[in-house]
């Protein structure tokens, strides 16, 4: 390789690194903006004395503000841990299928998810797994919220759970939504958020799955939908 070609390649690598950094920052901004919008909006409503809010309404607004503040705190905590590669695990043995059903029920019961269709299909009735339920719940929530937030009403989201090997579990989250192009797909498979599609959600989920010794991969096609596949060991490694 000549000096000229080396300099050219270094310049291209620098431009690519700068572009990825911009997308990363854009993704962070998007995910942090959502809870901040709720907090700002509902607090502003409470401060307007022209509206005679009832005590029940005030409690509901404060409850929303509190939940969104917790969400914001979790995002910052997740971001700090993933940046420093410090994700402590508190493993317990539990039923993976029950955990997935709980997460799905919690998501689909939210008012903002009312116009989406979510199904779960599991091959075994029970799948025992040694994992950190809090972190795995957070990863699955990120994936389901992402599938809802970035797709139009009426999108169908399906979760498939299977045991592929004696000690390996697989979770697939499929949607028939808008999908995304190969460039964004490649970036997310590398762990970088896409400003146009996923924000921090998928990136953090990938880190949480990897902390369990698992892998998260993405396959998508524009206007056809997205499939996210998680494969992780059922026992500690």
Automatic annotation (TrEMBL):
Pfam families: HATPase_c, HisKA. This is histidine kinase. The keyword Nucleotide-binding applies. One of its GO terms (biological process) is osmosensory signaling via phosphorelay pathway. GO terms for molecular function: ATP binding; phosphorelay response regulator activity; phosphorelay sensor kinase activity; protein kinase activator activity. It is found in: Membrane. Its main location: membrane. It comes from Paenibacillus sedimenti. The keyword ATP-binding applies. Its EC number is 2.7.13.3. PANTHER family: SENSOR HISTIDINE KINASE GLRK (PTHR42878:SF7), TWO-COMPONENT HISTIDINE KINASE (PTHR42878). Transmembrane segments: none annotated. It catalyses: ATP + protein L-histidine = ADP + protein N-phospho-L-histidine. Residues 27-236 form the Histidine kinase domain.
């Amino acid at each position: 390789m000549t000096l000229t070609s080396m300099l050219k390649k270094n310049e291209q690598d620098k431009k690519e690194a700068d572009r990825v950094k911009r997308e990363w920052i854009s993704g962070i901004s998007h995910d942090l903006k959502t809870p901040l919008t709720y907090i700002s909006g509902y607090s502003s409503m409470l401060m307007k004395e022209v509206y005679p809010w009832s005590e029940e309404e005030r409690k509901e607004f404060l409850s929303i503000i509190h939940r969104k503040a917790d969400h914001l705190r979790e995002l910052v905590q997740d971001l700090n841990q993933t940046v420093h590669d410090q994700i402590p695990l508190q493993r317990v043995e539990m039923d993976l299928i029950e955990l997935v059903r709980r997460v799905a029920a919690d998501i689909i019961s939210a008012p903002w998810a009312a116009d989406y269709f979510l199904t779960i299909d599991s091959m075994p009735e029970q799948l025992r797994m040694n994992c950190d339920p809090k972190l795995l719940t957070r990863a699955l929530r990120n994936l389901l919220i992402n599938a809802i937030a970035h797709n139009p009403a009426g999108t169908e989201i399906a979760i498939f759970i299977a045991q592929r090997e004696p000690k390996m579990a697989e979770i697939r989250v499929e949607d028939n939504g808008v999908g995304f192009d190969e460039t964004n797909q490649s970036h997310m498979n590398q762990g970088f958020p896409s400003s146009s599609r996923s924000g921090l959600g998928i990136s953090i989920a990938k880190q949480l799955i990897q902390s369990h010794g698992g892998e998260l991969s993405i396959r998508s096609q524009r206007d056809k939908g997205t499939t996210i596949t998680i494969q992780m060991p059922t026992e500690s490694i």
